[in-house]
Amino acid sequence: MTDWLSFFGWSFLPSLVTNWIQNIYYRIVYRAGENIPKPGQPKHKLHQRRIYIFVVVVYLIYTIVEVIHSIPPNYYDLLGVNQDFTSKELKSNLRKLQLVFHPDRNSEQQAESNFILLRKAYDTLNDPVKRFAYDRFGPDINYWTNCKTKRDYILLGRNYSTGFYLGTGLILFILNILGKGQFGRFWRFIVFCGIACIETSLILNPQSNSSFLSYLFQNFIIFERIKIFRQLFITIFIALSQVGPVLFPTDNTQDIRSNLHNFEILCNIASDEIKNQLRSGFYPFQNDQNAQSELRKKMEKLVVDNYLHQNDHEFVQAYNQAQQRTRKKK
Protein backbone atom coordinates (compact mmCIF):
# COMPACT_ATOMS: atom_id res chain seq x y z
CA MET A 1 0.00 0.00 0.00
CA THR A 2 2.82 2.40 0.84
CA ASP A 3 4.49 1.77 -2.53
CA TRP A 4 1.27 2.60 -4.37
CA LEU A 5 0.81 5.78 -2.34
CA SER A 6 4.41 6.78 -3.07
CA PHE A 7 3.93 6.15 -6.80
CA PHE A 8 0.67 8.11 -6.73
CA GLY A 9 2.42 10.95 -4.92
CA TRP A 10 5.21 11.08 -7.50
CA SER A 11 2.61 11.11 -10.27
CA PHE A 12 0.87 14.37 -9.38
CA LEU A 13 2.45 16.08 -6.34
CA PRO A 14 5.53 17.66 -8.00
CA SER A 15 3.47 19.34 -10.73
CA LEU A 16 0.77 20.43 -8.30
CA VAL A 17 3.23 21.92 -5.80
CA THR A 18 5.24 23.56 -8.60
CA ASN A 19 2.19 25.45 -9.87
CA TRP A 20 1.25 26.43 -6.33
CA ILE A 21 4.75 27.76 -5.48
CA GLN A 22 5.05 29.54 -8.82
CA ASN A 23 1.78 31.41 -8.24
CA ILE A 24 2.90 32.45 -4.74
CA TYR A 25 6.31 33.50 -6.14
CA TYR A 26 4.70 35.74 -8.73
CA ARG A 27 2.45 37.34 -6.13
CA ILE A 28 5.45 38.19 -3.94
CA VAL A 29 7.91 39.31 -6.64
CA TYR A 30 5.62 41.14 -9.06
CA ARG A 31 3.61 44.12 -7.89
CA ALA A 32 0.11 44.98 -8.99
CA GLY A 33 0.08 46.27 -12.57
CA GLU A 34 3.38 44.66 -13.58
CA ASN A 35 3.50 42.17 -16.41
CA ILE A 36 3.50 38.71 -14.88
CA PRO A 37 4.93 36.00 -17.17
CA LYS A 38 2.09 34.02 -18.71
CA PRO A 39 1.98 30.27 -19.39
CA GLY A 40 3.80 29.47 -22.61
CA GLN A 41 6.20 32.39 -22.43
CA PRO A 42 9.94 31.58 -22.18
CA LYS A 43 10.33 33.30 -18.81
CA HIS A 44 7.36 31.42 -17.36
CA LYS A 45 8.79 28.12 -18.62
CA LEU A 46 12.20 28.93 -17.12
CA HIS A 47 10.72 29.69 -13.70
CA GLN A 48 8.52 26.61 -13.87
CA ARG A 49 11.47 24.38 -14.75
CA ARG A 50 13.63 25.66 -11.88
CA ILE A 51 10.84 25.41 -9.31
CA TYR A 52 9.91 21.95 -10.56
CA ILE A 53 13.50 20.69 -10.14
CA PHE A 54 13.65 22.18 -6.65
CA VAL A 55 10.35 20.52 -5.67
CA VAL A 56 11.42 17.10 -6.99
CA VAL A 57 14.78 17.25 -5.19
CA VAL A 58 13.13 18.23 -1.89
CA TYR A 59 10.49 15.51 -2.29
CA LEU A 60 13.22 12.99 -3.11
CA ILE A 61 15.13 13.86 0.08
CA TYR A 62 11.92 13.62 2.10
CA THR A 63 11.08 10.22 0.59
CA ILE A 64 14.55 8.83 1.33
CA VAL A 65 14.42 10.03 4.95
CA GLU A 66 10.90 8.65 5.31
CA VAL A 67 12.00 5.24 3.99
CA ILE A 68 14.86 5.05 6.50
CA HIS A 69 12.78 6.18 9.48
CA SER A 70 9.81 3.95 8.57
CA ILE A 71 11.82 0.78 9.29
CA PRO A 72 10.37 -0.74 12.50
CA PRO A 73 12.62 -1.78 15.42
CA ASN A 74 14.40 -5.07 14.81
CA TYR A 75 14.98 -7.88 17.31
CA TYR A 76 18.32 -6.40 18.36
CA ASP A 77 16.65 -3.08 19.17
CA LEU A 78 13.84 -4.79 21.07
CA LEU A 79 16.29 -6.65 23.31
CA GLY A 80 18.69 -3.71 23.58
CA VAL A 81 21.78 -5.53 22.30
CA ASN A 82 24.35 -4.90 19.59
CA GLN A 83 24.98 -7.30 16.73
CA ASP A 84 28.10 -8.61 18.54
CA PHE A 85 26.22 -9.45 21.74
CA THR A 86 27.12 -12.30 24.11
CA SER A 87 24.74 -15.03 25.21
CA LYS A 88 24.91 -13.76 28.78
CA GLU A 89 24.04 -10.21 27.74
CA LEU A 90 21.12 -11.43 25.63
CA LYS A 91 19.64 -13.50 28.45
CA SER A 92 20.12 -10.72 31.01
CA ASN A 93 18.33 -8.14 28.85
CA LEU A 94 15.49 -10.56 28.18
CA ARG A 95 14.87 -11.08 31.89
CA LYS A 96 14.86 -7.34 32.59
CA LEU A 97 12.39 -6.65 29.77
CA GLN A 98 10.17 -9.57 30.73
CA LEU A 99 9.82 -8.13 34.20
CA VAL A 100 8.71 -4.85 32.67
CA PHE A 101 6.22 -6.30 30.16
CA HIS A 102 4.96 -9.32 32.09
CA PRO A 103 1.13 -9.26 31.93
CA ASP A 104 0.93 -9.76 35.71
CA ARG A 105 3.04 -6.64 36.31
CA ASN A 106 2.00 -4.46 33.36
CA SER A 107 -1.67 -3.64 32.76
CA GLU A 108 -1.18 -2.00 29.33
CA GLN A 109 -3.00 -3.57 26.39
CA GLN A 110 0.21 -4.16 24.43
CA ALA A 111 2.06 -5.69 27.36
CA GLU A 112 1.16 -9.30 26.55
CA SER A 113 1.94 -8.97 22.83
CA ASN A 114 5.26 -7.27 23.65
CA PHE A 115 6.06 -10.04 26.13
CA ILE A 116 5.47 -12.69 23.44
CA LEU A 117 7.45 -10.69 20.87
CA LEU A 118 10.42 -10.42 23.24
CA ARG A 119 10.44 -14.18 23.70
CA LYS A 120 10.27 -14.73 19.96
CA ALA A 121 13.14 -12.28 19.43
CA TYR A 122 15.24 -14.08 22.05
CA ASP A 123 14.54 -17.52 20.55
CA THR A 124 15.52 -16.23 17.11
CA LEU A 125 18.75 -14.51 18.11
CA ASN A 126 19.78 -17.30 20.45
CA ASP A 127 19.52 -19.88 17.65
CA PRO A 128 22.51 -19.55 15.24
CA VAL A 129 20.55 -20.82 12.22
CA LYS A 130 17.49 -18.64 12.86
CA ARG A 131 19.68 -15.64 13.57
CA PHE A 132 21.52 -16.23 10.29
CA ALA A 133 18.19 -16.28 8.46
CA TYR A 134 16.73 -13.32 10.37
CA ASP A 135 19.71 -11.10 9.59
CA ARG A 136 19.21 -11.74 5.88
CA PHE A 137 15.45 -12.06 5.42
CA GLY A 138 13.88 -10.37 8.44
CA PRO A 139 10.88 -11.45 10.55
CA ASP A 140 9.28 -13.24 7.57
CA ILE A 141 11.33 -16.30 8.55
CA ASN A 142 8.90 -16.89 11.42
CA TYR A 143 6.47 -18.23 8.80
CA TRP A 144 9.04 -20.47 7.09
CA THR A 145 8.34 -23.42 9.36
CA ASN A 146 9.73 -26.04 6.97
CA CYS A 147 13.26 -24.57 6.98
CA LYS A 148 15.77 -26.27 9.29
CA THR A 149 19.20 -25.37 7.93
CA LYS A 150 20.90 -22.25 6.60
CA ARG A 151 20.69 -23.69 3.11
CA ASP A 152 16.90 -24.12 3.43
CA TYR A 153 16.48 -20.50 4.43
CA ILE A 154 18.72 -19.23 1.62
CA LEU A 155 16.86 -21.26 -1.02
CA LEU A 156 13.46 -20.04 0.15
CA GLY A 157 14.67 -16.47 0.53
CA ARG A 158 16.07 -16.66 -2.99
CA ASN A 159 12.58 -17.42 -4.30
CA TYR A 160 11.15 -14.32 -2.63
CA SER A 161 13.97 -12.12 -3.94
CA THR A 162 13.61 -13.58 -7.42
CA GLY A 163 9.93 -12.65 -7.41
CA PHE A 164 10.76 -9.02 -6.63
CA TYR A 165 13.42 -8.71 -9.33
CA LEU A 166 11.40 -10.53 -11.98
CA GLY A 167 8.38 -8.34 -11.27
CA THR A 168 10.37 -5.11 -11.23
CA GLY A 169 12.34 -6.12 -14.32
CA LEU A 170 9.12 -6.94 -16.18
CA ILE A 171 7.67 -3.52 -15.30
CA LEU A 172 10.85 -1.79 -16.51
CA PHE A 173 10.74 -3.79 -19.74
CA ILE A 174 7.08 -2.94 -20.39
CA LEU A 175 7.70 0.75 -19.66
CA ASN A 176 10.62 0.66 -22.09
CA ILE A 177 8.46 -0.97 -24.79
CA LEU A 178 5.73 1.64 -24.28
CA GLY A 179 8.26 4.47 -24.44
CA LYS A 180 7.80 5.58 -20.82
CA GLY A 181 10.66 6.76 -18.61
CA GLN A 182 13.17 6.79 -21.44
CA PHE A 183 15.58 9.14 -19.67
CA GLY A 184 18.51 7.18 -18.21
CA ARG A 185 17.04 3.81 -19.15
CA PHE A 186 20.47 2.29 -19.82
CA TRP A 187 21.80 3.24 -16.40
CA ARG A 188 18.52 2.20 -14.83
CA PHE A 189 19.07 -1.39 -15.94
CA ILE A 190 22.76 -1.26 -14.99
CA VAL A 191 22.00 -0.06 -11.44
CA PHE A 192 19.11 -2.52 -11.20
CA CYS A 193 21.48 -5.41 -11.92
CA GLY A 194 24.03 -3.86 -9.54
CA ILE A 195 21.49 -3.78 -6.68
CA ALA A 196 20.73 -7.47 -7.34
CA CYS A 197 24.47 -8.29 -7.15
CA ILE A 198 24.89 -6.32 -3.92
CA GLU A 199 21.90 -8.11 -2.38
CA THR A 200 23.31 -11.50 -3.36
CA SER A 201 26.68 -10.57 -1.89
CA LEU A 202 25.08 -9.38 1.37
CA ILE A 203 23.15 -12.63 1.74
CA LEU A 204 25.93 -15.06 0.86
CA ASN A 205 28.99 -13.28 2.24
CA PRO A 206 28.24 -9.99 4.04
CA GLN A 207 31.78 -9.68 5.45
CA SER A 208 33.26 -9.32 1.97
CA ASN A 209 30.83 -6.60 0.88
CA SER A 210 32.54 -3.22 0.91
CA SER A 211 30.30 -1.13 -1.34
CA PHE A 212 29.67 2.52 -0.56
CA LEU A 213 25.99 1.84 0.20
CA SER A 214 26.85 -0.93 2.63
CA TYR A 215 29.32 1.33 4.40
CA LEU A 216 26.76 4.16 4.51
CA PHE A 217 24.13 1.90 6.11
CA GLN A 218 26.46 -0.26 8.18
CA ASN A 219 24.40 0.27 11.35
CA PHE A 220 21.44 -1.51 9.75
CA ILE A 221 20.95 -5.26 9.61
CA ILE A 222 21.34 -6.98 6.23
CA PHE A 223 17.61 -7.31 5.48
CA GLU A 224 17.10 -3.64 6.41
CA ARG A 225 19.87 -2.60 4.03
CA ILE A 226 18.29 -4.66 1.25
CA LYS A 227 14.93 -3.02 1.87
CA ILE A 228 16.49 0.45 1.81
CA PHE A 229 18.48 -0.30 -1.37
CA ARG A 230 15.34 -1.45 -3.18
CA GLN A 231 13.35 1.60 -2.08
CA LEU A 232 16.19 3.94 -3.01
CA PHE A 233 16.43 2.40 -6.47
CA ILE A 234 12.71 2.85 -7.14
CA THR A 235 12.51 6.33 -5.63
CA ILE A 236 15.64 7.79 -7.24
CA PHE A 237 14.83 6.59 -10.73
CA ILE A 238 11.25 7.81 -10.49
CA ALA A 239 12.70 11.19 -9.53
CA LEU A 240 15.22 11.09 -12.40
CA SER A 241 12.47 10.22 -14.87
CA GLN A 242 10.67 13.36 -13.66
CA VAL A 243 13.68 15.72 -13.58
CA GLY A 244 15.70 14.36 -16.50
CA PRO A 245 13.48 15.57 -19.34
CA VAL A 246 13.24 18.98 -17.63
CA LEU A 247 17.01 19.33 -17.15
CA PHE A 248 17.85 18.02 -20.61
CA PRO A 249 14.88 18.78 -22.88
CA THR A 250 14.99 17.31 -26.37
CA ASP A 251 13.24 18.44 -29.52
CA ASN A 252 13.07 14.93 -30.93
CA THR A 253 9.51 13.76 -30.35
CA GLN A 254 8.97 10.05 -30.65
CA ASP A 255 6.51 8.89 -33.25
CA ILE A 256 3.48 7.56 -31.43
CA ARG A 257 2.98 5.02 -34.18
CA SER A 258 6.11 3.13 -33.19
CA ASN A 259 4.90 2.92 -29.58
CA LEU A 260 1.48 1.74 -30.72
CA HIS A 261 3.15 -0.82 -32.95
CA ASN A 262 5.16 -2.17 -30.00
CA PHE A 263 2.00 -2.29 -27.90
CA GLU A 264 0.23 -4.16 -30.70
CA ILE A 265 3.03 -6.74 -30.73
CA LEU A 266 2.61 -7.32 -27.00
CA CYS A 267 -1.16 -7.70 -27.42
CA ASN A 268 -0.71 -10.22 -30.25
CA ILE A 269 1.72 -12.25 -28.15
CA ALA A 270 -0.76 -12.30 -25.25
CA SER A 271 -3.60 -13.21 -27.62
CA ASP A 272 -1.65 -16.13 -29.14
CA GLU A 273 -0.76 -17.40 -25.66
CA ILE A 274 -4.44 -17.33 -24.61
CA LYS A 275 -5.44 -19.22 -27.76
CA ASN A 276 -2.80 -21.89 -27.10
CA GLN A 277 -4.01 -22.29 -23.53
CA LEU A 278 -7.60 -22.72 -24.74
CA ARG A 279 -6.57 -25.27 -27.38
CA SER A 280 -4.61 -27.29 -24.84
CA GLY A 281 -7.58 -27.22 -22.46
CA PHE A 282 -10.00 -28.60 -25.08
CA TYR A 283 -7.54 -31.02 -26.69
CA PRO A 284 -8.90 -34.14 -24.86
CA PHE A 285 -12.32 -33.55 -26.51
CA GLN A 286 -10.97 -33.18 -30.04
CA ASN A 287 -11.92 -36.60 -31.46
CA ASP A 288 -14.77 -37.51 -29.10
CA GLN A 289 -18.14 -36.37 -30.47
CA ASN A 290 -20.07 -37.53 -27.43
CA ALA A 291 -17.75 -35.67 -25.08
CA GLN A 292 -18.01 -32.55 -27.26
CA SER A 293 -21.80 -32.72 -27.21
CA GLU A 294 -21.85 -33.16 -23.41
CA LEU A 295 -19.34 -30.34 -22.95
CA ARG A 296 -21.41 -28.03 -25.18
CA LYS A 297 -24.55 -28.70 -23.11
CA LYS A 298 -22.74 -28.04 -19.83
CA MET A 299 -21.19 -24.85 -21.16
CA GLU A 300 -24.59 -23.62 -22.36
CA LYS A 301 -26.03 -24.40 -18.92
CA LEU A 302 -23.10 -22.57 -17.29
CA VAL A 303 -23.70 -19.47 -19.43
CA VAL A 304 -27.40 -19.46 -18.53
CA ASP A 305 -26.68 -19.96 -14.83
CA ASN A 306 -24.13 -17.15 -14.80
CA TYR A 307 -26.59 -14.83 -16.55
CA LEU A 308 -29.35 -15.64 -14.06
CA HIS A 309 -27.00 -15.21 -11.08
CA GLN A 310 -25.95 -11.78 -12.30
CA ASN A 311 -29.32 -10.42 -13.48
CA ASP A 312 -32.17 -12.29 -11.77
CA HIS A 313 -32.27 -11.56 -8.03
CA GLU A 314 -35.35 -13.77 -7.49
CA PHE A 315 -33.51 -16.71 -9.02
CA VAL A 316 -30.51 -16.10 -6.78
CA GLN A 317 -32.71 -15.96 -3.69
CA ALA A 318 -34.54 -19.18 -4.65
CA TYR A 319 -31.22 -20.87 -5.45
CA ASN A 320 -29.78 -19.97 -2.04
CA GLN A 321 -32.89 -21.22 -0.25
CA ALA A 322 -32.68 -24.53 -2.12
CA GLN A 323 -29.00 -24.85 -1.17
CA GLN A 324 -29.84 -24.26 2.49
CA ARG A 325 -32.59 -26.92 2.44
CA THR A 326 -30.18 -29.38 0.84
CA ARG A 327 -27.59 -28.76 3.57
CA LYS A 328 -30.18 -29.23 6.31
CA LYS A 329 -31.24 -32.60 4.85
CA LYS A 330 -27.63 -33.75 4.86
Automatic annotation (TrEMBL):
Domain of life, source organism: Eukaryota
Entry keyword Transmembrane: yes
Pfam families assigned to the protein according to its UniProt record, in alphabetical order: DnaJ
Xref: InterPro entries: DnaJ_domain, Hsp70_co-chaperone_J-domain, J_dom_sf
Name of the protein: J domain-containing protein
Annotated GO biological process: ERAD pathway
Keyword RNA-binding: no
Lineage of the organism: Eukaryota, Fungi, Fungi incertae sedis, Mucoromycota, Glomeromycotina
GO molecular function: misfolded protein binding; protein-folding chaperone binding
Transmembrane segment boundaries: 12-30, 51-71, 160-179, 186-208, 228-248
One Gene Ontology term, aspect cellular component: endoplasmic reticulum
Organism listed in the record: Rhizophagus irregularis (strain DAOM 181602 / DAOM 197198 / MUCL 43194) (Arbuscular mycorrhizal fungus)
Residue ranges annotated for the J domain, each copy included: 74-138
Keyword entries, A-Z: Chaperone, Membrane, Transmembrane, Transmembrane helix
